Amino acid sequence: MSDPNEGICPECVRPKIVALHEGKCYHHNHKAQLKERAKKGIPRESEKRAKQVRQYNKDNKEFAAQNATCAAFLLDKETGIQCDEIATDSHHLFGRQGERLTDFTGIIRLCRRHHHFVEMHPLIAKALGLSESRLSINTEQ
Predict the structure, then answer these.
(1) DSSP, res 75
(2) Is 87 exposed, middle or buried (0-12, 13-18, 19+ CB in 10 A)?
(3) How far from each other are the two terminal CA atoms of the chain, in whole angstroms?
(4) Pick the residue with more confidence: 95 or 134?
(5) Using alpha carbons only, what angle is made at residue 119 by residues 47 and 79, rounded to the nearest 5 degrees?
């Protein structure tokens, strides 16, 4: 009497009794699993990150309402000349990795023009206090 997990794979060219996995030989079962994975694709983000993004989107609306004007100083903090444009973007001073996404102590609101400037000129932005090193371990401000 043969093992119930043994039999002939319906997809094999040369039929012989082999160990079956979900009704197929190891090779054809593995091919089917790869094909199934290819259909699903790689998820864009983990479930944990998706939850963080949903929370961030919700909290960011409140944060935007409280911080309606751009936080950028046109020259430097000493001059006191601040941009008076409406803030449209949230800039993460320390980046958005891990828990930093939802840490609003490291987020400032900027107008589109200044946010673009900060992203394109990181050294100047750091000198003006509009960005911080994303490599530092200590995120205390």
Answers:
(1) S
(2) buried
(3) 73
(4) 95
(5) 125
